[in-house]
Amino acid sequence: MSLADTCAMAVMAKAPRPNHVKTRLVPPLTAAEAASLTASFLRDITENIREAARSVLLHGHVAYAPAGCEALFDGMLAAGTRLVLADGSIPTPPGVNGFGRSLFHAAASLLEQGYGAVCLVNSDSPTLPTAYLKHAAAALARPGDRMVLGVSDDGGYYLIGLKAPHAVLFRDIAWSTDEVSTQTLARAATAGLDVIALPLWFDVDDAASLARLMEDLERPAGIDPTPYAAPATRWWAEELGYARIGRQAGRDAENPPRLVGLGREAHQG
Fold first, then answer.
1. What is the percent of the chain where pLDDT is above 90?
2. Burial (Cβ within 10 Å: 0-12, 13-18, ≥19) of residue 106
């Protein structure tokens, strides 16, 4: 199939460097632990996208910043994951500021490559059900322009899916507030876009949501919706002793992420 029939699904991510990622989790974590958690999230989310690609036409990407840090992702991502720069350095329409510049950069770059649709996914939801990713890609594969939005319970969104780089969706948004999803839906209405809503989910960005994630990892199989198993994050939690997760479950992570300088010795340092 051609790229025009394929959805590019890209994780918005900073390179996992201490003191640059998950700073709201320091404390209770150290800067090194927060960086290694970020690396685990990236492995799980890209593996989750790879799993979704077994059922729907999509290619997994990481939309990264800053420029020049590509090597820092080596060994951390699912096989076949591609990199695309999304640091907001391209010219953007008036009113597209802050994080919106990076989102617009990622969407425009991938659509320019010839993809028929793009989904931008946050890097903070390692247990997001695979079914939600598949539903987003399938909704965008249907004829007609539309937006897919997965709203987070903090008022932001964990996924936005587009078939064209609609700058209005990123214009004059109060990023990092609980108004993001509400404002984005208002912009979609202004543009006359149909909206497909995904179920509510959560981000991990503070101690309370990290505790919720640890509970999610221990939920039994077969529940609805079924969270992604997040084996790399389980491995991180078990190695750090952050949660009571069985040793075998932690060791089931196939090829856990390469955490150069961020391993057990860093946790103990």
1. 77
2. buried
Residue 97, Cβ neighbours under 10 Å: how many?
15
Report the predicted TM-score, pTM, of the whole model to 2 decimal places: 0.89
CATH no. of 3-267: 3.90.550.10
Q: Helix, strand or coil for residue 133?
A: helix
Angstrom distances, CA of residue 134 to CA of 39, 59, 71, 155, 171: 23, 12, 29, 22, 27
pLDDT mean over 8-14: 97
For residues 36 and 19, what is the distance between their CA atoms, to the nearest angstrom? 11
Q: Convert 205-238 to b/e letters by CB count within 10 Å (16 or more is b).
A: beeebbebbbebbeeeeeeeeebbbbbbbbbbbb
The answer, yes or no, to whether residue 196 has pLDDT greater than 50, is: yes
Convert the pLDDT of each residue in 212-248 to its tens digit. 898 888 776 667 778 999 999 999 998 887 654 333 3
Domain ranges (residues) in the chain: 3-267
Q: Is 109 exposed, middle or buried (0-12, 13-18, 19+ CB in 10 A)?
A: buried
Instruction: Give the whole-angstrom CA distance, residue 252 versus residue 35.
Output: 21
Query: How many CB atoms within 10 Å of residue 140?
Result: 25
